Amino acid sequence: MADPFPLYLPPEARRLFQTESLLRRLANNAHWNASAKLLEFHGSLGGLALAKALNCTLTVVEPEMRVIDALRERARAAGMLEKVTFLNQHAAGSSFGVGNFDGIFSFGRVVGPLDSVAATWRTWLAPRGRAAITTVVKVGRTPADQALAVWEKRLGAPLLLPRDALLSVEAQGFEPEMVESAGELELEDYYRELELVLNKVTEGPMVQGLRDEIALHRSLAGKSGVTYAAMVFRRKEPDEKPPASRDGG
């Protein structure tokens, strides 16, 4: 089976989990400020906006040169060009120094299997650094068997419930902090906009894979029980003491 990651998304498509409120919550929870060093896989306007708001440095790993060119122009217009470093490479081939970054994220792009991405990113995170990872999860009491089978074949592994996904990353040395999943209406709007973009790109296996994903969602009337989720974790140290009980007991 060919490696399905990163899951394909046309650069022109709108991404999930790029709202200002979500990015602000992430920054506030992480206590990032102008001294923060951030790393984003698959560059986005949201990442640039976050770095601009914090006035911090941002390294962007992006395999598409046309995306880098567009983001570089936006960074120049925002007066952020000296704060942003662009690396034209794939996420899978990336390597950075131990503890280099206060935050690593990829909102709206599934770059790899959740637990292996978390394990790799942890090495590059400074103590108490945050990782924000997008993944595919099953939700609800009775996810559709058809959808689960299709996604398992596509990803090469069974889908997890959000709580189980959080636990799988906790085992990699993280403290779960936040999870946000796309609801039925949000996912329907996302797919509707994505269809319009797909009509303008060159057909191929990756495009067809996205069309099949949308068709599966529609065939189940939007109730597949499968969606995308953004998860935020804090790097936890082996000798870290558990938080004090809130009730004092």
Question: Short summary of the structure?
Answer:
Strands 3-2-1-4-5-7-6 form a seven-stranded mixed sheet, sandwiched between helices. The protein is of the alpha/beta class. 38% of the residues lie in helices and 21% in strands.
Write the layout of secondary structure elements.
Elements: H1 20-30, E1 37-41, H2 45-54, E2 57-61, H3 65-77, E3 84-87, E4 101-106, H4 114-124, E5 125-138, H5 145-155, H6 162-170, E6 174-181, H7 184-198, H8 205-219, E7 226-235
Helix pairs in contact: 1-2, 7-8
Characterise this structure.
The chain starts with 19 loop residues before the first helix and ends in a 14-residue tail after the last strand. The protein is α/β, with parallel strands linked by helices and about 250 residues long. The model has no long low-confidence stretch (mean pLDDT about 95). It has helices at about 20-30, 45-55, 65-75, 115-125, 145-155, 160-170, 185-200, 205-220, and strands spanning about 35-40, 55-60, 85, 100-105, 125-140, 175-180, 225-235. The radius of gyration is 18 Å and the shape is globular. It has one domain (about 20-235): 3-Layer(aba) Sandwich (Rossmann fold). Helices cover about 40% and strands about 20% of the residues. It has a seven-stranded mixed β-sheet, with helices on both faces. Helix 1 crosses helix 2 (about 45-55) and helix 7 (about 185-200) packs antiparallel against helix 8 (about 205-220). It is built from eight helices and seven strands.
